[in-house]
Amino acid sequence: MARMTVKTLAAALGVSPATISNAYNRPDQLSPQLRERILAAAEELGYPGPDAAGRILRRGRADAVGVLLSERLSYAFSDPFAIEFLTGLSEVVEEHGISIVLMPLARRAAGSSATDADQSDVTAVRHANIDALTILSLPADHPAAMLARARGIRLVTTSVSSDPDSSWVAIDDCAAGVMVGEHLASLGHRDIAVLVETNQPAGSPGRRLDAAELGYLDYAARVAGLRQATPGQVMIVSGGHNSIESGTTATTWLLDHDQLPTAIVGLSDVLALGALQALAARRLEVPGDVSVCGFDDIATAKTADLTTVHQPIHDKGQHVGRLLIDPESRPRQVLLPISFVRRGTTGPAPR
Amino acid sequence: MARMTVKTLAAALGVSPATISNAYNRPDQLSPQLRERILAAAEELGYPGPDAAGRILRRGRADAVGVLLSERLSYAFSDPFAIEFLTGLSEVVEEHGISIVLMPLARRAAGSSATDADQSDVTAVRHANIDALTILSLPADHPAAMLARARGIRLVTTSVSSDPDSSWVAIDDCAAGVMVGEHLASLGHRDIAVLVETNQPAGSPGRRLDAAELGYLDYAARVAGLRQATPGQVMIVSGGHNSIESGTTATTWLLDHDQLPTAIVGLSDVLALGALQALAARRLEVPGDVSVCGFDDIATAKTADLTTVHQPIHDKGQHVGRLLIDPESRPRQVLLPISFVRRGTTGPAPR
DNA sequence: TAGGCTGACTAGAACGATTCAGCAGCGGGA
DNA sequence: TCCCGCTGCTGAATCGTTCTAGTCAGCCTA
User: Fold this and answer.
1) pLDDT at residue A110, rounded to an integer
2) What is the helix (H) or strand (E) element at residue A275, kind and residue range?
3) What Å value separates CA A31 and C1' C3?
């Protein structure tokens, strides 16, 4: 038997396709008896209801929003920040029956392009059937974002932008950096290392970065703020993508290269937690020998007694969710409050 | 200016729409010069590439797989099992450039239906544009699963089924239950309480369930196995959906109703962890006063020194991922190994 | 009885792309 | 010289639905 469509079912029942459609989507447009008859026939003939693809094409709406988490989808799931963000986001969108599409951002096989960001393959967002998109931990001028804009997909980013036509929900990353910088400066730290994430594959060796290499980084403003508020030198190190493991790798690199500063700042809490692990493994006292500080205040930061900058991650997700499903397309900007949280991992710089 | 489509771009360039399509999808079908010319014109005229909806309708493939996690999407993110499963799943699918669609399962507003499961609204899976679907923590005969089958969507479930036409990746839940039962029996426990999840809203009060009420439960086999291997009585209690909080609620209910057994079995590790918290809050010794045991062996089970039944969650996600994207549609079944992990939360029954 | 209104249903045109069969034109082998 | 096959491109059909603009019969009102 041929595939059942709205047309074949209509033919079988001797009614118009439009009526079948109405039976499913607008019950008030036809008599209850006929509707019952149609639904019964659908059941009997095995018509599974309107096809999603056809429906979406015609209606011009997918009832789904996209989330681009980071270079590798699978990394995101081990990132408490991403999880908490997603929780807030999903609370809002699921309330409206909207689905969430998580898209991979494959690395292009042969990369002869100039910039780092260009290396990622955005076909997934090109082919994705979504009404709106949000990107996390990616700069607002990332190719994926540009493509979304070009495709006419509502875009909500998570970093401050001066463009009044863009929607975003963000914190003042520079101010956050300043908070940490001032705190460390007041404690006498003049030699600081910053742990950043890079989109290097897992297990990459630690390495030192030039400030210029930070361009691609979504959180570059944090480093800028830190630098601004700190009288001493700031070295930038990375151990790979955003994870505890990378924090450990980067910190171990510092230790192995005899570059141990008096304070280590993880650009995210997980990186800072990784630093704590590496230091513990080498029997170094925190904050006696080294101070450690993070950003974001994820749940485990509290457990680990990590000094950090709090931001309302869950709220952020909710706000983004609201903007994503908002039918009125006027761009909106939301700046969320942050606060410095002093805990036990920072102390006076050793002499 | 009118919206750019493949047709308008073709007209502007004086070529056929087919050629535009080929320029994007089959570069070998046209000369490199023309392809360049087309791509350049697209850039200049602001054509964002083929529209996703039209493309999907025509090709009959969405390049996306769906995941139905549980009653509430947002709950799933706080469930380490789901996260680990998703990690494995995403590793596989992102490798193929396939997106993951997380779908909500809204509760229907007015429920006059007979069964519990019927109460959930499956419109999300009806409208979802996906090639395959997997369901987690939901019985294989859940309406959502039935609908997926009817729609001709490949379905991969996570519980054993005798139907040779169905694909699944699962463990032997009954055997897992037996393992726990035998362990507890050998320690002299004759009075056991099982903590189960129900799809009740968050913050529901604890309550006792009849065995008959377990029908809807995906993990009913675990209870059956447990009962089978245990000589004593087994009481079933719930505090709501699968979460630490529910475990606490259910355990508190036991304490408040003077029904404290010698052993508490959480049907998942998070429920067991909740039990541990509730017991600690009441200053009860584990395993001195009460033994506690879980299922699944999530990462925190190890940290909490919780006795449990190990299953390869990450592998499970990977296997499901592979079956989801497998183009050859022959159904496949995968039974994963399990092992009992005795840790510190179980001990001899007190007299 | 004419005119207007309402409720129930329909015809047919989009929506935007992909794909298959096919058709020029051209170079080369026999 | 003839014919074959190849490259590069096109025309038209198709995917399955929804929506707009109706038609039509029946009923109420004046």
Assistant:
1) 40
2) helix A269-281
3) 27
